[in-house]
Amino acid sequence: MMIHIFAFAGMDLEVYTLLKQMIFYLQNAGVDLLKVMHLVLRSSNDTTPSTLVADELIKIFIANKLFDHAIDVVNHVKKIGLEPSIYSCNYLLKCLAVANQGENLARLFEAMNNFGPYLM
């Protein structure tokens, strides 16, 4: 998948832009974003999925006020053996606090205590 090629090449802006456009299109088409997100996180050739892709998905979901989707990315990434960056998790915590999403904030903080995202 092109997204993973860009991610492995360190092309952060390209990954963000491609994912943002993809999510915008799929959301307008009425597609279940969570199902698509799980597929996007998997690499097309079953190599190690990219943490960068997960971090960019988290940022995009936050920007679109889809906090439940962003939290699901954090949880799914852990299930597939990756760690989201501390920066993405902290940004999500901050945005949840600003949006008065106390319950989600507490659940995410507890999850972070359990898996401790790496400082990248």
Automatic annotation (TrEMBL):
Output the superkingdom of the source species: Eukaryota
InterPro entries annotated for this entry?
TPR-like_helical_dom_sf
Spell out the Gene3D superfamilies in the cross-references.
Tetratricopeptide repeat domain
Give the protein's recorded name: Putative ovule protein
- What organism is the protein native to? Solanum chacoense (Chaco potato)
